[in-house]
Design a protein that fits this description.
Blueprint lengths: L10 E2 L4 H14 L2 H11 L8 E2 L7 H7 L1 H21 L6 E8 L2 E4 L4 E6 L6 E2 L4 E5 L2 H37 L5 H34 L1 E3 L4 E6 L6 E2 L4 E6 L4 E8 L11 E5 L7 E8 L4 E2 L13 E9 L1 H4 L7 E6 L2
Antiparallel strand pairs: 1-2, 3-12, 3-17, 4-11, 5-7, 5-10, 6-9, 7-8, 9-11, 12-16, 13-14, 13-17, 14-16, 15-16
């Protein structure tokens, strides 16, 4: 920029060395010593001829530091070498990856609406298959099921009587010929009608029992109660989940690997998972490898930044190990050779 008035200005060279330092340090994190050396040489090259006018009155500290380039070059060299040394001492990034745990939840709901009468579990509980989770108000459904059960009982009693009468008339007709064929046919028709009535009442009872049973939900499998979404006394709309479950088999680790590490991973491969405070390392088996590449951050396809491509990998734990793990935990994943 140029000062107003009679103050003189002069062109002051501005080197893009801060960007070069960032490039060298980042490259040192992922590259080898030879590549680091080449980047270092590039960063120490003479400044470009492009200049920017900077006022003497206002000069940001970075420009002042760069203008004293010959004196500060040794500092840059030392800093870059230190970054390369740290990168050389870090773990092998091609075999260890950052990830996190994720759960596939099971949301238990009733297909019918009603007032939540009894919430039988609380957040943090462990439930077993068939254990009651919650029950909605179902008085009217209970009355309908009771009436259907009584109707079925009456139909069954009528059928039992008609079967006895038909058997007696059939014996009289065959042994003594006391009754006519028409009377035997009437007894048979009555028995068949009672059988049909029993079948109809059985279907009616099943239909009456279905809404009664659906208003009480059981645990579909052994699981951890992640959350309860309603309180007793609240109205629950049809199909709205009341309890959120996390079965142990639904816990998995998700991590991302660069394109160069993808050939090392295959479905069924075992990985070792650790996290802060963990009792020990946990084994998981790779069950999914994404077929779509992702960019972090998004860049354009090119030979240079192809190394930024990552692929999502998922691996599942055994039911025993899953009890010690929680979704959302950051973890370290190591390939087991």
């Amino acid at each position: 920029m140029t000062m107003n008035g009679n103050q003189s200005t002069r062109d002051q060279p501005v080197f893009d060395q801060t960007i070069k330092v960032s490039v060298v340090v980042r490259f040192a994190t992922f590259g080898g010593a030879s590549v680091l050396a080449s980047r270092l040489v590039s960063s120490l090259a003479p400044p470009k001829t492009t200049t920017t006018k900077v006022s003497r009155k206002f000069q940001p500290p970075v420009f002042s530091w760069i203008n004293r380039w010959p004196r500060n070059r040794s500092c840059l060299v030392a800093f870059t070498l230190f970054a390369g040394f740290v990168a050389g001492c870090s773990p092998n990034a091609s075999n260890e990856f950052q990830g996190y745990l994720e759960g596939e939840y099971v949301y238990v709901a009733s297909p019918l609406g009603g007032t939540l009468q009894n919430l039988a579990v609380a957040r943090g509980d462990q439930v077993v298959t068939g254990q009651r989770l919650f029950q909605l108000e179902r008085r009217s459904e209970a009355d309908a099921a009771r009436q259907a059960s009584n109707n079925l009982a009456q139909a069954q009693a009528s059928l039992a009587l008609s079967e006895v009468q038909f058997a007696r008339r059939e014996q009289l007709r065959n042994d003594q010929g006391v009754i006519s064929a028409e009377e035997l046919d009437q007894a048979r028709a009555q028995r068949d009608a009672d059988q049909a009535q029993v079948a109809a009442q059985t279907d009616a009872l099943a239909k009456a029992n279905w809404p009664f049973e659906q208003k009480e939900q059981m645990a579909p499998t052994n699981a951890f109660v992640q959350d309860t979404l309603y309180r007793a006394g609240e109205w629950v709309a049809a199909g709205k989940p009341v309890v959120q479950l996390l079965p142990p088999a639904n816990l998995k680790v998700r991590f991302f690997v660069p394109e160069t590490a993808l050939p090392k991973i295959s479905p069924g491969q075992t990985v070792s998972v650790t996290f802060d405070g963990g009792k020990h390392s946990y084994s998981a088996m790779v069950n999914y490898i994404s077929t779509e590449a992702e960019f972090t951050p998004p860049v354009i396809y090119s030979q240079e930044n192809r190394a930024k491509l990552v692929y999502m990998i998922e691996a599942k734990f055994s039911a025993a190990d899953a009890t010690d793990l929680r979704p959302g935990q950051p973890v370290d994943v190591k390939l087991v050779q």
